[in-house]
Amino acid sequence: MKLRIDHVFKSFARDGASIPVLDDIDLEVAEGEFICLVGPSGCGKSTLLDVMGGFMKPTSGTVTIDGEVVTGPDPRRILVFQERGVFPWLTVEGNIAFGLSKLPRAEREARVAHYVRMVRLEGFEKSYPSDLSGGMKQRLQVARALAVNPDVLYLDEPFGALDSVTRLIMRAELMRIWQTERRTILFVTHDIDEAVQLADRVVVLSSRPAKIKDILTIDLPHPRNISSPRYLELRDSLLDKIGLAYSV
Amino acid sequence: MKTTTRPKLWEKAVWPVLAAALLLAAWHYSVRWTGTKVFPSPLSVEKGLAGLVEKHVLWSDIGDSLRRVAIGFGLATLVGVPLGLTLGWFPVVNQVVNPTMQILRPISPIAWIPVAIIFFGVGDRAAIFLIFLAAFFPIVVASISGVSSVPMIFRRAGRNFGLSQTQVLARVVFPAALPQILIGLRLALGVAWLVVVAAEMIAVDSGLGYLVIDSRNSGKRYDLVVAAMLVIGVIGLVLDIGFRRLEKIRSVRWGFRHEF
User: Fold this and answer.
1) In this structure, are strands A3-14 and A60-65 parallel, antiparallel, or unpaired?
2) Closest-approach residue (CA) in chain A for B152
3) pLDDT in tens, B247-260
4) Chain centroid, CA A4 distance in Å
5) A191-218 pLDDT, tens digit each
6) Of the candidates B154, B162, B250, which has its C-beta nearest A99's C-beta?
């Protein structure tokens, strides 16, 4: 077991009242597993990522990775943000090398070159983020995260700000990277198709306070045929679990 | 025929030159038609300027003024930027210091002249102190607001990659706040250039400010007064243009709007 969320509760104090956000979240994630967290917007998905990343203490309960309790942020688990997460004052190379300052120069350069290739940003090494498209910036953010060799990646709606075509391409890219690097990934999204295309298991959260409503195992091999009957069946059942009607 | 073509280079130059020429003409004819014997015409200002250059006083006055601004502004940068970064980083400290600073800030550096003379006597150091004061507050304020407007997401990314507090400050907060700090520095340099003239009128006997007041006091040479004023204006413009070039540096350019 790679990651274990053990009865995590989280509430915020606001105007003297305690507002519950996470309600008894309990989940086990295997090494190398790809988990998607879906739920209505504002339900507390990002709060859950904050707790798992060590940016926020749970009110009660614990998160453990490899048996070690998470108490603060750590390069062994990197959070990738929706947008504007890359540093605009650094070049592509500078961003990827950001977490590598402790490495000897030669090794750092080799790693940067490796991840520039992996996210297909060759030729843009010296470019600044302001010269990159939205999709390239997100690829850069993923490269910066992978470069420090984390055990776990948390992605918080990483493609949410991209147009729909770029989003499809990015999913394929992420799948390719995940299949070569095999990290444990927790991916927050509110896009049903995204979840069914990417995940091994989809965790469905309720509206606030977030509870785990259901967990759906996606037993489809990659690459997934998004018009196969089984895919559509899983997608419909996910829609159903979220509580949406079949017709819009 | 296109109407949206960009103005050509000569077109961009022609109109401003024409505007300046019109102003000069208006000045010239106003002096002639009113028959004033006190206020100089553009031609006599030009002669006065040529005289100043010939006697080599102009260059040393320019040098003195620039030196005072460089020292005063430099010190204000060295003290103001780290102080502003610290205050922005520790909002609790800022809350304690801010009210005092807000009272001191609107006091014109000119009002400090008597105090400066008590502290430093009549001389270079008093003038430099005034320039320091003038530049100090815009720099501190810009640095504080620069730090506090750094997006949370950057600080968190910094912590996520295992940086200590000081490393986050140096490697994330400072570069993220740098464009705003540069805006403050540019503002401060403009104010410093305004104040050096005032300071030199009272506290010292060299520099462009002294040239203005001395030209008036010793023989009412208003041609030299106006000549010195024009020199002050041109140097101020050159300083500003020079500073704006810093905004084009790649690692800060993202923080400025640029039209292409």
Assistant:
1) antiparallel
2) A85
3) 888 888 888 865 44
4) 16
5) 889 999 999 999 999 888 888 988 999 9
6) B162
Q: CA-CA distance, A198 to A226, in Å (whole number)?
A: 11
Who's near A217: CB < 8 A, 6+ residues apart?
A200, A201
Phi/psi at A167 (nearest 5 deg)? -60, -45
Confirm if A163 and A136 have CB atoms less than 8 A apart. no
Three-state secondary structure call for residue A174: helix
DSSP B2-62: -S-PPPPHHHHHHHHHHHHHHHHHHHHHHHHHHT-SSSPPHHHHHHHHHHHHHTTHHHHHH
8-state DSSP, A223 = S
Kindly determine whether residue A89 and residue B254, on different chains, have CB atoms separated by under 8 Å.
yes
Q: Render the burial of B176-214: b for 16+ CB within 10 Å, e for the rest.
A: bbbbbbbbbbbbbbbbbbbbbbbbbbbbbebbbbbbbbb
Residue with tokens 């997934």: A224
Q: Contact B160/A130, CB-based, under 8 Å? A: no
CB atoms within 10 A of CB B73: 27
The number of beta carbons lying within 10 Å of the beta carbon of residue A46 is: 20
Q: Residues of A numbered 47-106 whose beta carbons fall under 8 angstroms of chain B's beta carbons: which are they? A: 53, 55, 73-75, 78-79, 81, 84-85, 87-90, 98-99
Q: Tokens at residue B142, please?
A: 């810009």
Q: What's the residue count for chain A?
A: 248
* ipTM of the modeled complex: 0.88
pTM for the model: 0.85
B139: closest CA among B199, B71, B79? Answer: B79
CB contacts, 8 Å: A88 with chain B: 254-255
With both helix axes pointing from N to C terminus, report the angle between B42-54 and B9-34 in degrees, rounded to the nearest 10: 100
Strands (DSSP E) contained in chain B are none
What is the torsional sign of CA A195, A199, A201, A205?
Answer: negative
Query: Does 1.10.3720.10 match the CATH number of domain B41-252?
Result: yes
Q: How many CB atoms lie within 10 A of CB B100?
A: 9
In one-letter notation, the amino acid at residue B93 is: V
Between CA B126 and CA B116 the distance in angstroms is 5
Looking at residue B244, its amino acid is: R
Burial zone of B231 (CB within 10 Å; 0-12 exposed, 13-18 middle, 19+ buried): buried
Interface of B with A in 69-98 (CB under 8 A): none
Per residue in B145-184, pLDDT (tens digit) is 999 999 999 999 999 999 999 999 999 999 999 999 999 9
- Out of A55, A99, A130, the one facing B156 most closely (by C-beta) is A55
Contacting residues of A for B159, CB less than 8 Å apart: 55, 73
Q: Where are the domains of chain B?
A: 41-252
Give the pLDDT band of residue A244 (cuts 50, 70, 90). Answer: low
